[in-house]
Here is the input.
Amino acid sequence: MNPLAVTVTLRRCARHFHHHQALQPLDLTVHPGETLVLLGPSGCGKTTTLRIISGLESCDAGGEVWFDDRNVTALPIEKRNVGMVFQNYALFPNLNVAENVAYGLKVQGVARAEREARVQEMLELVDLSALAQRSIDKLSGGQKQRVALARALAARPKVLLFDEPLAALDARLRDRLRLEIGALLKKLAITAVYVTHDQQEAMALGDRIAVMERGRLVQIDTPQNIYQQPASKFVADFVGAINCVDVDARGNPLRFCRPEDVLLASDNRYRRQGFILASTFLGASQRLMIDIGLATPIQVDRHAREAWHAGQPVSWMLAQDAALQFA
Ligand SMILES: Nc1ncnc2c1ncn2[C@@H]1O[C@H](COP(=O)(O)OP(=O)(O)OP(=O)(O)O)[C@@H](O)[C@H]1O
Here is the structure.
């Protein structure tokens, strides 16, 4: 545990723009050293929450932001000592890699020798030492984002804030940088808040995930609990695929399950019957669409090497404890 890591607390933080309530009154605690991911669809209030923590945005009267036992509500961003990493990098194109990382330290008045040592340390941390003198426009998207991360960390922020930092990168680079950021956050044990609408990113990086819907926090828990015990159908849907497997007499959905939680057989071993409508090869797995006699077919994930084919009759049942129900 990092003894310097702070607790971030939001108390009744709301925000409206004109007549639109972007954020309902929000109470939220980010524990010292934890990475909290804010996850939700576009417009649900993630960025507004992040900006309120940073000081780029103020909350409506009555809301408060605390870093440990310090009320920072009235402090502007430059007095809060937060590091920010954005989707669009926000680097200075006319400065090279090292100069970009050093910029904030220069503004803070950190002496030259100390500045150079810290820049070197940060570039090592993000594995960019070899490119210290390179100009920003000669870097790949992933390298630019590592510079942005080094710059954010160089000032030794109390809190690190990420706003969709991987959104502009292609899928492979995104996966790699996600792993790197995850490893770095673990190593530094700095308090971090990370905004994304990508559920895989949220699962991989979050110690906890706060799911937001239309300006409200709807569930906050570990990735495992969010996935396995979602508080609502909205949460269940947002963090993965979901099937309705039982309806009531009026056709209203009663029970749901994840695609990986269906046991499937080509004989009549299981009580319930269905037949395969289609199969999609996904590399490691295949996703089967199975007609089980309800309005919507269910999706079932199986290992890619198993031989299933469209038109095949099957029997099936839910794995133990796999059924999800919502009030
Ligand atoms: N400066 C502003 N002026 C007016 N409305 C705003 C402003 N900033 C945000 N909003 C509105 O507040 C709501 C929440 O926006 P916010 O950017 O927090 O959502 P988000 O979850 O981060 O979405 P996205 O993933 O698209 O960035 C949206 O309806 C947005 O249009």
The domain at 8-235 is CATH 3.40.50.300 (Rossmann fold). The two ends are 39 Å apart (CA to CA). The pocket of adenosine-5'-triphosphate is lined by residues 17, 20, 22, 40, 42-48, 197 (CB under 6 Å).
